[in-house]
């Protein structure tokens, strides 16, 4: 049998046609997505240790950064895929996702990513994508918080576009109820187990008071606190976040072990100590299928870690750019054509040398 004039098996022919016609569903399998943990084995063998060293240094003085870097990867992947679109700054042609409501004044670590990129470029110029740096940073941050490690599938390329509107639409909000959370994850090809496992990243890090004041004082305009909040915890949170206080004050996600990646996030939910509404919903929604998963993870840290690893790899495969599409950015905040325009001192192959200013 022949397709496109070449003799091949019929099944292969059909697959090729489906790919051409865009009829294959978005793949969540690492191999099918074209990613491979050994992608940089020959071109940048030290990339993992370079990324690790920068993050380890930063986390000594800023332990919160570990959670912030996981969140950065998550907020990248949910908006047109894991393509480092979140790192792009405002320019004439780019409306930055950084100023979309889910990111504005809350994403952290852009400077850390730039530091990593500088170190990586020194060792292997023009090879490692910013999107892969975000994926590696998320795994390394998990490990540095004493969580599980996994082999990060690599080989993503960076986008040449961003989508601020989509950031406002796709990213779940702290006030989401369970059906909206499930649907936001489902839109990305992630199921209920992925939702519960990935929410476990709230086992460390901080949130700002402004996202919980309604739960503490006037939940759903009832003039009462959220009834699913533990009353002891409510009093503690009211001390940290007084009514009409500074909405930017920080509070720990996990009151038990604030900087450690462990199963306490789930144990906290069982005693009604989830910080955000979107956390407690997983356990306190009557009859929800998430309840048994929370119960499982709260009593079995290994089950949580295994699920988290699988879900992070799955999330890391969303909408990845490989092959001839995309580019390897020289500077993570700008697409390459604009890096040159802005005179950021990047190597410009067309001009055959370093361009330090324009
Ligand atoms: C990390 O910190 C050590 C000790 O302070 C320093 O020698 C090293 O250069 C730092 N590495 C990076 C990549 O920042
Ligand atoms: C990119 O924008 C961020 C604010 O979102 C700013 O802090 C940073 O300095 C900008 N980066 C560059 C290289 O201009
Ligand atoms: C952003 O995404 C929306 C929804 O997919 C799409 O309609 C819009 O054209 C995109 N905007 C840009 C700037 O790509
Ligand atoms: C979610 O997907 C994973 C595979 O990615 C699978 O193992 C798990 O059974 C699924 N869970 C549900 C509730 O569908
Ligand atoms: C609760 O919020 C509603 C709507 O914003 C407002 O009308 C009401 O006055 C608030 N109640 C209290 C006690 O703050
Ligand atoms: C509230 O938290 C305390 C521990 O601080 C715990 O003993 C109690 O059982 C919790 N209440 C509920 C309803 O889970
Ligand atoms: C949690 O779920 C996993 C996978 O279904 C199972 O192997 C394990 O025994 C469960 N653990 C508990 C404590 O229920």
**CATH topology name of the largest domain:** Peroxidase, domain 1
- List the total number of helices: 16
The H-and-E topology, N to C, reads as EEHHHHHHHHHEHHEHHHHHEE
CATH C-level class of the largest domain is Mainly Alpha
Q: Radius of gyration in whole Å, from Cα?
A: 22 Å
Description:
Residues 34-336 form the Plant heme peroxidase family profile domain. This protein is mainly α. The protein has two domains: 47-169 and 317-355, Peroxidase, domain 1 (Orthogonal Bundle), CATH 1.10.520.10; 171-312, Peroxidase, domain 2, CATH 1.10.420. 44% of the residues lie in helices and 4% in strands. The chain is built from 16 helices and six strands. The protein has helices at residues 10-20, 30-33, 47-61, 65-77, 110-123, 130-144, 164-170, 178-186, 192-199, 213-217, 231-240, 264-270, 277-284, 290-299, 301-316, 336-341, and strands spanning 2-3, 6-7, 206-208, 250-252, 346-348, 353-355. The strands form three sheets. The protein has a two-stranded antiparallel sheet with strand order 1-2. A two-stranded antiparallel ribbon has the order 3-4. α4 (65-77) packs across α6 (130-144) and α12 (264-270) crosses α14. The longest helix is centred in the C-terminal third of the chain and has 16 residues, at 301-316. The chain is globular, with a radius of gyration of 22 Å. Bound molecules: 2-acetamido-2-deoxy-beta-D-glucopyranose (NAG) (7 copies). One 2-acetamido-2-deoxy-beta-D-glucopyranose is lined by residues 89, 98, 110, 333.
């Amino acid at each position: 049998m022949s397709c496109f004039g070449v003799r091949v098996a019929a099944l292969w022919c059909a697959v090729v046609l489906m790919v051409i016609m865009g009829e294959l569903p978005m793949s969540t399998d690492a191999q099918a997505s074209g990613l491979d943990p050994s992608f940089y084995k020959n071109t940048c063998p030290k990339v993992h240790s370079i990324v690790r060293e920068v993050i380890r240094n930063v986390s000594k003085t800023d332990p919160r950064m570990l959670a912030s870097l996981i969140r950065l990867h998550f907020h990248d992947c949910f908006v047109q895929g894991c393509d480092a679109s979140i790192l792009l700054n405002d320019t004439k042609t780019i409306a930055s996702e950084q100023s979309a409501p889910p990111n504005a004044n809350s994403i952290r670590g852009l400077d850390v990513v730039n530091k990593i990129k500088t170190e990586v470029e020194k060792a292997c110029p023009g090879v490692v994508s910013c999107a892969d740096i975000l994926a590696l940073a998320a795994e390394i941050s998990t490990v540095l918080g004493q969580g599980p490690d996994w082999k990060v599938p690599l080989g993503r390329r960076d986008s040449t576009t961003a989508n601020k509107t989509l950031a406002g639409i796709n990213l779940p909000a702290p006030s989401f109820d369970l059906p909206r959370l499930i649907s936001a994850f489902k839109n990305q090809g992630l199921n209920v187990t992925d939702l519960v496992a990935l929410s476990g990243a709230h086992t460390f890090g901080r949130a700002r008071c402004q996202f919980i004041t309604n739960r503490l004082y006037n939940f759903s305009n009832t003039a009462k606190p959220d009834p699913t909040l533990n009353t002891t915890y409510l009093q503690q949170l009211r001390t940290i976040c007084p009514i009409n206080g500074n909405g930017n004050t920080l509070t720990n996600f996990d009151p038990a072990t604030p900087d450690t990646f462990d199963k306490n996030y789930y144990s906290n939910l069982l005693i009604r100590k989830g910080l955000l509404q979107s956390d407690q919903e997983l356990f306190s929604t009557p009859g929800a299928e998430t309840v048994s998963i929370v119960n499982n993870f709260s009593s079995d840290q290994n089950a949580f870690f295994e699920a988290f690893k699988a879900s992070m790899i799955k999330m890391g495969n969303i909408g990845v750019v490989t092959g001839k599409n995309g580019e390897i950015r020289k500077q993570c905040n700008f697409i390459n054509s604009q890096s040159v325009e802005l005179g950021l001192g990047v190597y410009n192959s067309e001009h055959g040398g370093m361009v330090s200013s324009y």
